[in-house]
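The material for today's practical consists of a large collection of protein records. Backbone structure tokens are a discrete shorthand for how the chain folds in space. An example says more than a description, so a record of this kind follows:
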Amino acid sequence: MRSGRRFRRGRLFLAGDAAHTYSPATGQGMNAGIQDAVNLGWKLGFATNGAGRGPAEGFDAEVLLGSYESERRAAARGRLVLTHAAFWAEASTGRFPAWLRAVAAPRAAPAFPVLLGRRRLVAEAVRVVSQLRVNYRRSPLSVEGTPPLRGAPRPGDRLPDATVGVAGAAGRLHAVLARPGVHLLLQRDAAPLPSGPWVTVLRLSNSPGRGLVAVRPDGHVGFRCAAADPVELTGWLALIGAAPSAPVGP
């Protein structure tokens, strides 16, 4: 069980088992590798899309690509702690883990049905083990607008699924977000915003308010704001290479 000291050097990126290896305990390896690929894939695509721009337009490919290592290496360290603890409890030959297996676990067994009956506790455990609780709150790509949108997932969090109303029809949020690219979710009374080649704008008719949530291609929130401010939003879109290109004069 180990993780690479670096996930990127120049144009070389490590992902999956090349970047980290886990114990089979809790089954973390495949999900982690897939999330590495999704995280890196959209950033490579957007870096290519913004290749003709520079810092003067708010885009720096180094910031975008560098965020892969900072986001996914932190996630890998968290997985290592979980899998190491599980493997230690299951297989270590030390006195304490042996006592846990031989004495503590049998004594605690009668409480398991009670714990499994607590739906919130079980749901939270499932989210942790399935990596739905992985977040990128400390990433340079996670931006809180002014004023912040309270009650919504924080920038860096994975956007949870929910029933939403879009274009007069009810549907599941994750199904609505299936189209590749960035999605701007406007609350019901938010000011209209333009879409673009990489940006889809959706208005949620069952969400009162004037705010917006910008969702990255990997399903994590990148930006949120209680007022649909086009200036702040454009700054965030430029940061990830998704802002519309400025028109070129004759």
About this structure: Helices lie at 29-49, 61-91, 95-108, 112-116, 119-129, 173-176, 230-240. The CA atoms of residues 115 and 121 lie 7 Å apart.
